[in-house]
Amino acid sequence: MKKTCSLVLLRGLLVASCVSYGSFAAAAEAEVKKENAAVAVAPASVAPVAAVPAAAGAQVGVARVNGTTIDARELRRAKKVMLRGQTIPPDQNAAADKQAVEQLISAELLYQAAAKVEIKDLDKQIDAKLAQGKERFKDEQDFKNAIKELEMDEKELREYTRRDLLITQYVESAFVSKTVVTDAEIRSFYDKNPDKFTREESVKASHILIGVDSAASADDKKKAREKADKLKKELAGGADFATLAKGNSTCPSSQQGGDLGSFGKGQMVPAFEKAAFALKPGEVSDVVETQFGYHIIKLTEKTPATTTDFKDVKAKIGEYLKGQKVNEAIQKYLEETRKTAKIEILL
To answer: How far apart are the C-alpha atoms of 310 and 304, rounded to whole Å?
Structure first.
């Protein structure tokens, strides 16, 4: 777990974050979701990792872009960053390799365009970005371990950072600054996706479960029901719900006094959901039977359905739509650039 977290932190220093503008779109979508106005779109593609020219004695190349070699070590590194520490089945490795190589090629094409543009104070910007990245690690050793895991040293990391900044600023000047989203487009998106800006009714509840298998004998079911009925009477007599849940419920939630947290419709089995949503805050249900056994439900909170006002999400929608437009522009640019570029896949 510690190693995975370090790689994810280091990813911020390695990824050309604006390439394909995936991070922009993802961030905008996340903010819209916070306002209960999630945008239903396909997940943004992982931003390509900026490729570094192969050093002397480097491993065999997996691709060449206009004469620049991308080697096997870069591919392994790109896969680690792309997969974020997750493992994949062996039969999916070839597809992951192909995706990573394609991202490296796209990053190299953008870098080759970006390298023609001069940036003032580039070294200072590199220093600042590296320092900012290091601050995300608990100490210097943790930072070095993460670099080592990605088969690189600090000199190589600096080169990655330089290329990342060049690509980022190129994308900003060539695509982002030229992309406009109108108020009419934002309003149209909001009006055409009303369900995306609605928070459905939800409830917060606790329960006591006397578990019994649906295939259990009639006698076992009878005993479970009798125990549930007994607990219901104790509650009616003033017994504390959380205390009874901790001492009797067979659900793991018993450790929290039966607290299930908040949930909306469609998240619980029908019988349980119907009983829970029928209650008022503070009320306790009769014994409810489901395939899991017998439940006693206590409603602690009910939140009505709400719709987020346009003014509250206008800016987030605008950011999201701009991200989509920039992404499309970059992809179109890469498609056109590939037509004249000399690209060799050696994988």
So the answer is: 19
What residues pair up with 344 in beta bridges, in sequence order? 64
Is a pLDDT exceeding 90 seen at residue 5?
no
Distance CA 330, CA 245 (A): 56
Q: Which stretches does DSSP call E strand in 119-272?
A: 198-199, 202-211, 259-264
Judge if pTM exceeds 0.85. no
Cα(313)–Cα(33) distance, integer angstroms:
10
298 burial type by CB count under 10 A (0-12 exposed, 13-18 middle, 19+ buried):
buried
pLDDT at site 81: 84
Return d(Cα 206, Cα 190) in angstroms, integer. Answer: 36
Give the whole-angstrom CA distance, residue 272 versus residue 265.
10
Q: Please, what are the domains in the chain? A: 2-195+310-345 (1.10.4030.10), 201-304 (3.10.50.40)
| Cα 195 off chain centre by | 21
Check pLDDT > 80 for residue 166: yes
Helix 2-14 vs helix 154-174: angle between axes, to the nearest 10 degrees?
50
d(CA 256, CA 9): 33
Comparing CA positions, the residue from 263, 235, 237 lying closest to residue 249 is 235
Check: CB of residue 163 under 8 Å from CB of residue 50. Answer: yes
pLDDT of amino acid 59: 61
| Chain-centre distance for alpha carbon 172 | 24
- Helix, strand and coil in the chain, % to nearest 5: 55, 15, 30
